[in-house]
Amino acid sequence: MNLLLLIIIPFLTAVVILTAKDFKQSRSIALVGASIQLVLAFFLLNQYQAAKALVQTEAFVFEQSFEWFPSLGIQFLIGVDGISIAMILLTALVVVAGILVSFTMEELHKEFFFLLILLSLGAYGFFISLDIFTLFFFLEVAVIPKFLLIGIWGSGAKQKSAMKLALMLMGGSALIMVGLIGLYYFSNETGNRSFNMLVLAQYPISYAAQLVFFPFLFAGFGVFTALFPFHTWVPDGHSSAPTAASMFLAGISMKLGGYGCLRVATYLMPDAAVHYAPIIITLASIAIIYGAFATLMQTDLKYINAYSSISHCGFVILGIGMLNKTAIVGAVMQMVSHGLMTALFFAAIGMMYQRTHTRLVSQLGGLLKVMPFISSVFVIAGLCSLGLPGFSGFVSEMTVFVGAWQNPNFWYRLATILACASIVVTAVYILRAAGSSVMGPITQKNFLHLTDAQWNEKLAAIVLLSGIVIIGIAPFLLTDLLSSSTDVLVEKIINTF
Amino acid sequence: MGLELLFTLKHELLISLSIFLLLFIFVGSNHTKGATIIHIVNALLLISVFFFLFEPKQSFVFNQMFESNGLIQFQKSILSLGLLLISALSFQWLKHHKNVIEFYLLLLSSLLGMFFMISAANMLFFYLGLELATIPLAAAANFDLEKRKSGEAAMKLIYSSAFSSALLLLGISFVYGLTGSLNFTEISEKIPVNALSQFAFILVFSGFAFKMSVVPFHLWTADVYEGAPVPVTAFLSVVSKAAISFVFVQVLFKVFIHLELSYTISLAVVSICTMLLGNLFAMRQENIKRFLAFSSIAQVGYILIALMGSHEVAQSAIIYFLLVYVFSNLAAFGVIGIISNSLGKENISDYKGFYQQNKFLSWALAIALFSLAGVPPTAGFFGKFFLILAAASKGYYLLIVIAALNMIISFYYYLRIVRNIFMETSENPMPQVLVQPITKVALIVCLIGMIVLGLYGPVYEYIAAFAKPF
Q: Does A336 lie at the interface with B, CB-CB under 8 angstroms?
């Protein structure tokens, strides 16, 4: 399959949106574009499995390369493996759901849908890039839409949040840039310089250089995925953003960081990853525990989900830091699972907020009686978040724990135990939030005549829910997809032990 | 021989022709309308822009004093493009100005001076070009005759130029004393590496630093930019700075090549100061012209760090960056000029809620600012990335970390304006501004330039193809 389609279709969608005459046209164009992309993503999955059955040795398939700046060795190189396909599927699902819940976004609608599609374009481009310059390019393409989406259509202290998010993400990008340049000059020092990930993997940079540049790359991507000291943009950004943007931020954008940590930092500098693993695991454990306890104190539903995202993304980092196959598969599963779950959570919160005009747990109550569908979706997202078996959260967190436990080191085991224990805290805040906001008696009179979800909102929830349930019930579908690709990664790491 | 001379000097001859045309045909007659003159000059400049495609080969004239090759001609075309865009962007202002002929006479003479300066292969010839490029600018800065600030700007510009020229001349005379020659190639062969030559370098460098507004020689910049009319500010900040940077690359890599160690140290120090001070001051500006002045100081800092890299990469990265810079900065100045001319507003806070009435201008300004900040998909991203890549080519990783940190600071203040445009709502936002068709075309050209130059690789490759070992 021609991977360029994955970039061309969002691009065309974005251009066509600009010609839309009214609000209905722009939202339907966006929806059609996103749906085509979703179909394409499943088609890609199908094609990938067919191609994998034929050639099992190749790490990446459907590779295409175009010269971009040949004198600097910069190519436009794209290709996919199982991990990127999982991420592309996640992106496609979240984008469709995000557009479905934005059906009432009439203010400056053209710009809104244009920026949403541009953001998704950045994510697709990022996940298919095999050249780290291209990858970096797409990573930054996705920053400005976030800034504008939050700042223009957001709520609360939107300008401050938008600034904070944009500056922190740009700071992350600046760190990544230094790391990339280090890789460029230290790899393959005698041959032609290149940003090509396959070439860089073939000629790893020296141990000393890895020790210098690994922290830049890992911390840079860590900013995107809310690695502990760099997580402060997450609560503000998520809570100020409009619903669709929150879904994109938590569902897609935070995954860019996790994917980068794995694919760029760890894959290209395995020695340094081994060297820094204790620090990574410490930071991840802090994020998990700190995130969980910070969530306990929140009273705003969006803040609850945002802080719990810090905790959940900690599992991704923990899985990567453990550097064994099971843990890394678990980390990728957790990325997919968290993406779907948190997008669903934000969608449900958005729907509730749109009707009740409040997100404070203390002011909500008894919503299950007036809007059963939305409330059930909210509870299900919560249950997935606390890791109830049958949903994706359970399988992915379990896989991370199993992988983490394989490491016999005492401190690693301690980190694992602490991370496991955080699930109890998760249960406390989720059950408390769900209990007091959707169950019990109806607290305010004006809730009585609220309506339940529209067809578009139901469809959005169903799209995300089906992903969560399918992974929860049949995790092998995802693990099979990831398995061979993680082997390639882990092989490099094992060689360095 | 005659034909070859014609080809070698084609840019200069065309600009001289334009000057003569203005002087002898239009100055005397009061009947010609301003718009006609503008269109004629624009047409001539447009030809000059495309001249670089025509017979770009290596040649020398005037007894080895004047050099021309493909790269130099390309640079001249960039400068012509800059003046053309300025002229189209400030059409509204120029059309009703009573001294439109004088405006073009001054700026065209300055452009001619820059052409000679770029082509110079000899210190004296270079100095001649530099003076021709600078002196008309001081008069142009004073173009708003009735404004006090304009006069102040012109005085500051002329004093600082005179001072920097004096430093430069002293440096040149030291170099002459050391080598007995003024020819670039001969100097680079004969110049010894000792304290005196390093001192001479520092003097020449200070002369350049004044014109490029490198910290600590930047003090004139903000006042002059604020006082001068917007088109002149745009010319100073974009065309003049680009020209002097082109020459600086040549002089540094050609003439002072053997002093690499000492120039690297001085460049490192001033580049860090330039980036940091430019950025920190830009954060606090309220007047948008002063803001652009300080942001352009910071941009020069990035150029300086690239100069420390290996020569071929640095040269192409800098020329590419300046090409992108012409488009991005002129788009920003264009929008600001339109607003300043029709509404008289020049403060950043005036731009609150700008998007409510002026969608096209808002996007043009926002994309220009993104390009200056170096955010993809605009070409500014590639420009900055290549500069930093060039700086790292000799292993100055600490510097690129500092540059990266500075990019975050600069990101803050560019976004601050974008925030005012899109996110703030104002009770009485700026009313819709009428944009002249020719100005709109120029803005669209800038926007296309900012998007296409990066995504379309062959532009960089065209520049990189000229890179040769010095």
A: no
